[in-house]
Specification:
Structural class: alpha/beta
Keywords: Aminoacyl-tRNA synthetase, ATP-binding, Ligase, Metal-binding, Nucleotide-binding, Protein biosynthesis, Zinc
Largest sheet: 3 strands, parallel
Helix content: 25-40%
Radius of gyration: 20 Å
Number of domains: 2
EC number: 6.1.1.-
Number of strands: 10
Distance between the termini: 12 Å
CATH class of the largest domain: Alpha Beta
Strand content: 15-25%
Order of helices and strands: EHEHEHEHEEEHEHEHEHH
Family: Belongs to the class-I aminoacyl-tRNA synthetase family. GluQ subfamily.
Cofactor: Zn(2+)
InterPro entries: Glu-Q_tRNA(Asp)_Synthase, Glu/Gln-tRNA-synth, Glu/Gln-tRNA-synth_Ib_cat-dom, GluQ/Sye, Rossmann-like_a/b/a_fold
Number of helices: 9
CATH topology of the largest domain: Rossmann fold
Length: 305
Amino acid sequence: MAPCIGRFAPSPTGPLHAGSLVAALASWLDARAQGGQWLVRIEDVDLPRCQPGADQTILAQLADCGLHPDGEVLYQSRRGTTYQRALDQLVAAGHAYPCACTRAEIAAEHARLGLIKPRHGELVYPGTCRPTAPGQDGLHGRPARAWRVAVPQGPQANWHWHDRRLGEQQQALDTEVGDFVVRRADGLWAYQLAVVVDDADQGITDIVRGEDLADNTPRQQWLQQLLGAPTPRYLHTPLVLDARGEKLSKQHGAPALDTGSAAHVLQALRDAGAALGLPALPGPTAKDWLAQAVNAWPWRSLNTG
């Protein structure tokens, strides 16, 4: 088995909160429990949403909690040339195509077909601009706005994958996802492409992240296959919910993580550990608690899944 390399990849849209500490801690514990490396990547590809200085705040909060990366911090905003090479590769192989559709047009086509958007779900792209023959485009003379990757159709679209916590998973890429965007209409790189390229370039073997991102896995594995990149192991952790039962997030007003004192840090780590299913640990300091938490990591025996 290849040496474990894990990662934590926050978006610098604000400081860490209790929910994001759970994700950071889970990825750190998993890497340490396997005797591996832990990296940090700043996912600032969506620059308009990023807050100036939030990256340094996040790195300082991680350091306060004793979570130190084992290598240089990677910034997505500096990797546009690398993402372009990946898109060029997909286009040359006939896997990606330009799309002229607006959100309103996609919604109108859904309405015409009698399709209903699921709550918290996405509008599945109806394939309007998908080329019907090699070397052609489906723009019908309209200017391209975005770039999409075509997903398999029919039986091949029923994607199966294994999660170390959730077990066997499946998703129909054609009816649940559709051809998805890899470069947006505003010129920004889409999360799906950037994360796959970055994970491959950093040699990530184990992706540990929140359960809300599990449904991204099939399309990312499809991209890995198209780009000839290795497929990491996956572990999706429980979400931290607010009083309304929604995912704790900056969008919903989650307060910033308080790392201003050793006592606050220790309590934050204990709370994050409890959310991950760790038993109560007596460590009197954050360093002691982290050492005990590595030994108590509950998915240690599932690392080969």
